[in-house]
Amino acid sequence: MTPARERPIVAIDGPAGAGKSTAARAVAERLGYAYIDTGAMYRCVALRCLRGGVDPADAGGAAAVAEDIDIEFQPLSDGGQWVVMDGEDVSAAIREDGVSDAASHVSAHARVREVMVQRQRELGHAGGVVMEGRDIQTNVFPDAEVKVFLSASPKERARRRAGDLRDRGLPVPSVEELTRSIAERDHRDATRATAPLAAAPDATTINTDGMSIEQVVDRVAALAGAVEGDGCSA
Ligand code: DC
Predict the structure, then answer these.
(1) Which of 72, 89, 91, 109 is deepest in the core (most CB within 10 A)?
(2) How far is CA 166 from its chain centroid?
(3) 3-state DSSP call for residue 147?
């Protein structure tokens, strides 16, 4: 038996561009919880593969990287965080488009997932965390007290991605192109054998089309508030 948790694990899943990173970070800040972006962990493995000449599709090569890599999250005062890989701040480098694609490949390997899931459980088991990622509520913490699946239409997600890239001064592909690449990634993530993208049966699904971040955060924080200190048990 796992001991009861004082504060819940809030597990947020959903496809790329559904607003889960922004929402998860803001919910963590609102509640005073730690924020753990598990996608960033797969992105670090992908980045190290790319830099080291390891093909992200090579299961053995990617697994060796996952077993060796050191990943830390360093919180910033504004609720954001630095992602530190082997002592280097890679927060920006892991967001580049080539890394997104490679991360989708490395995260499909069973051994890579096994190593990352183990680390995620160590980071989150005590509760008081907002964990974001594709399989948190179905696989990493199926006993999470709060499970939220954020969705949005592909077009809305492509629009948000374009805005993101523009804000960061990066080249912006057309919305059609972005919609297509989002749909391709969704398909790969949803149809893979290990931990495919899916909402847990007991998750609350929130379609964020037309919702502001504040509205999303209000809803998720209310779900967490409803269970906090209320004998969260694992
Ligand atoms: O959420 P993201 O785009 O930063 O995730 C990067 C990749 O890692 C994406 O292809 C989904 C995958 N991922 C995963 O398989 N499991 C997680 N818990 C988080 C992300």
Answers:
(1) 109
(2) 22
(3) strand
Q: Which two tokens stand for residue 37?
A: 């972006």
229 CA to centre of ligand 1 in angstroms:
30
* pLDDT reading at 75 higher than 50: yes
Pocket of ligand 1 (CB under 6 A): 16, 38-39, 42-43, 100, 103-104, 107, 133-136, 189
Q: Tell the burial category of 123 from Cβ atoms under 10 Å away from its Cβ (0-12, 13-18, 19+).
A: middle
Beta bridge mates, 37: 132
3-class DSSP state for residue 156?
Answer: helix
Helix (H, G, I), strand (E, B) or coil at 136: helix
- For ligand 1, atom 15, the nearest C-alpha belongs to 107
Q: Whose CA is nearest to atom 18 of ligand 1?
A: 133
Q: Is the pLDDT of residue 223 over 50?
A: yes
Q: Which atom from ligand 1 is nearest to the alpha carbon of 13?
A: 18
Q: Ligand 1 center to residue 190 CA distance, Å?
A: 11
Displacement of CA 131 from its chain's centroid (Å): 7
What is the CA(231)–ligand 1 centre distance, in A? 31
Ligand 1 atom nearest the C-alpha of 116 is 18
Mean pLDDT score of the chain, rounded to an integer? 90
Instruction: Identify the CATH number of the domain defined by range 9-229.
Output: 3.40.50.300
What mean pLDDT is predicted for residues 1-13?
A: 82
Count CA within 13 A, CB hemisphere, residue 209. Answer: 9
Going from N- to C-terminal start, the domains of the chain cover: 9-229
